[in-house]
Amino acid sequence: MITIGILGGGQLGRMTALAAANLGYKTHIYCPEQDCPASHVSSDFTSAAYTDTAALDAFARSVDVITFEFENIPHTSLEQLQAIKPVYPQPTILQKTQDRLIEKNFVQSCDIGTASYQVVDSLDDLKTAVAAIGVPCILKTRTLGYDGKGQYKIADNAPATRTAAWEAMHGQPAILEGFVAFSCEISVVAARTQQGEIALYAATENSHKNHVLDESLVPARISDAVRVKAEAIAGTLAEALNLVGVLAIEMFVTESGDVLVNELAPRPHNSGHWTIDGAMTSQFEQLVRCVVGLPLGATTLRAPQIRMKNLLGEEALDVAAYLQNPAAKLHLYGKKEAKAGRKMGHVTILS
Ligand code: AMP
What we know:
The chain is built from 11 helices and 17 strands. It is an alpha+beta fold. The longest helix is centred in the middle third of the chain and has 17 residues. The radius of gyration is 20 Å and the shape is globular. It binds adenosine monophosphate.
């Protein structure tokens, strides 16, 4: 029997493990935290640091193929694993998407637009970059940022604002991005197999609260022209990366109908959770198919309109309210504490 090793034990790993089980595969979760959401639904679990070379070695030898649900895994650890078993998506892809500067350079090298950006390694660099890009703009750490963490919006030209922004980076290399006055945010999840077969999910319209995804709506309320552009971007990036696995592409749509790439995530994505109930094949099953070498499943919608609501913090305590609607599908991730802003689960409503 095939065992899929998954680095990371959060909800993405949990839903991947569930999809793997449905296809008859075992999963082995590797995660530093004990009692993590994915460990509850997998056959094997290793709790060790991502830098523990002995534990990584034993993990790689115990599985047939490796994937990840967590992006901040040191490249050296992935290389160590790859020397023993195949890792999909390939570690070189993660290397590109772990660093916002490398990621944006790569996207632009594919003739795809992004917000304007400049490297910032010092307060002096920040002054030059703000002058070049203009306000408003956002300073972001190049690595380890997610859900708005490691970001600082600069709304004016005051030196004190720049100092506060630079201090918020805690000395880490950063990039300054022009603020995109978007009309909406969308994402497309792409899947690509080892043979180069590609499938795209319908563009999803995303709304955020406090930088965290709150709701996704499918299909996104965008023109056909914008949809075609977004799909072309997703296909181009999946090809250019030689992707094996799934890739989420977060994009800004501007008033004039331009589509700019904000961020890439070479893993299942929160904005693709609707695919479990709303698509013929979920993004998690699609990832499993890619890593074990099966053909892709259909991405067709199961309903004309699908809405996914994240349950953040205490929102997850009122499950009865969501289940008032018999068409609502509830997913809880088995996290113990409903801390403010923590992703506890989601509800999908097909209509
Ligand atoms: P990120 O962590 O880069 O995905 O940013 C989180 C959220 O902040 C995005 O989903 C946007 O809502 C907002 N944001 C990030 N970068 C920009 C930008 N350059 N212009 C406008 N909004 C942004």
